[in-house]
Amino acid sequence: FDRSGNRLTLTPAGTLLLEKASKAFDQLIDAAEGLAPDAIAGKLTLGCTTTLLVSMVMKTIGRFREAYPEIDLEVVEIKPLQKAIPRELELAFCFGEPLAKDRRVEPLIREKIFPVCSPGLLQSVSRVTRPAHVLNLPLLHNNLGHWDRWFATARLSPSDAKNHLRFFNTHVALAAARRGLGVALASSLEVQNDLLMGTLVKVLDDSIEEPEQYYLVAHFPENQTNRSMLFERWLKDDISSLSLLE
Q1: Dihedrals φ, ψ of 80, to 5°?
Q2: Closest listed residue to residue 48, CA positions, set 93, 114, 84, 6
Q3: Tell me, what's the pLDDT at 48?
Q4: pTM of the predicted model over 0.90
């Protein structure tokens, strides 16, 4: 990679490697997709955080089930920043890098987070044009301390807000935001459907990078099942589509 400021770009050698590796993996996937249904039938166990499951992976599951009804899916919860990933999970989608030296750990995406709230709440207050105005709204906290970092970029403190509601995860904080209880911080991955449907709106475009990336944990190719290989490709396609929308 070449680094320019905060951005990474592929070197010519990296671009060539990506092209050749992508073709090789595409050939493997095409071969797997061409198998008879009884060759991929069976159980596939996935691990995922609640927020990622509801916001992204559920969409992939719905499409995947229509295409491969012969595959039985089981989804197990993984906590954000969880380090130990159970061996029985064929695929795991984690927030924060896990410890799985005996398996493949691959960065998926690093998101930016920004404030969102219900349209009704935003319409009920004076115009919000800068971070200081957000302090006039109830702040909805998850368990990751994002508001401290977001306000720090504007040299402000969330302690100056008039009202706070604290929840144990992002999924619940976003549910409260949809009900008009306050402003939450979220990534486009987490609220893409809400923004499209209008159940949530951006309060400001001011954003910060999430402190952690999302990661994929999977068995190495020689030990990976065709079921796992197929689902991995489908999820990556959905993530690529999200990146293109941005």
Answers
A1: -55, 135
A2: 93
A3: 93
A4: no
